[in-house]
Design brief:
alpha+beta; Factor Xa Inhibitor; 2 domains; three-stranded antiparallel sheet; two-stranded antiparallel sheet; 35% helix; rod-shaped
Length: 160
């Protein structure tokens, strides 16, 4: 876009080439990191409005003295407090994953112990291959010992 100075419009030396200013509007869904990146940029001739808006909105975001619904100097509404809180909120604790191998082999019971299966019961447990004493012993419930329980509490954090 070419603009003429007021006064002398005949000479080409008086013509000034001005670039069109492209201002990006900040939306509520954009992260605060993007706002900080825009505010940190040095304001050039083409982006002075964007930098001014971003720095003012960051000031409004982080200063508790300014109300969140106050009008912006540029006439653009800044973020609401609930949106800012949701963008800035971090989880208090990460989600822990259950160890899938431990979950398949052990089952937590109400008193804090873990039930497990006996080995040797998958096949070949007819009368001819195993004695009745051994079959009776393998039929009873087996529990994890104390050392295994300590490990299982870490492997299955949501079981007990």
């Amino acid at each position: 876009m070419v603009r003429e100075r007021a006064g002398d419009s005949s000479s080409p030396a008086t013509l000034i080439a001005s670039t069109t200013t492209t201002t990006t509007t900040m939306l509520a869904w954009q992260p605060v990191r993007a706002l900080a990146r825009i505010a940190a940029r040095p304001p050039s001739a083409s982006s002075w409005a964007t930098a001014a808006f971003a720095s003012r909105s960051l000031t409004r975001l982080f200063s508790p003295s300014l109300p969140s619904n106050a009008a912006s100097p540029l006439g653009v509404r800044t973020f609401a407090a609930s949106t800012v809180a949701s963008l800035m909120r971090k989880p208090t604790r990460i989600k822990l994953k259950t160890h899938s191998g431990a979950a398949k082999r052990f089952k937590a019971i109400a008193n804090g112990m873990y039930k497990r299966a006996h080995s040797g019961k998958a096949h070949l447990n007819s009368n001819a291959s195993m004695s009745s004493t051994r079959l009776n012993r393998l039929g009873k419930t087996a529990y994890a010992n104390t050392a295994e329980r300590r490990k299982l509490r870490k492997l299955m954090p949501y079981s007990c």
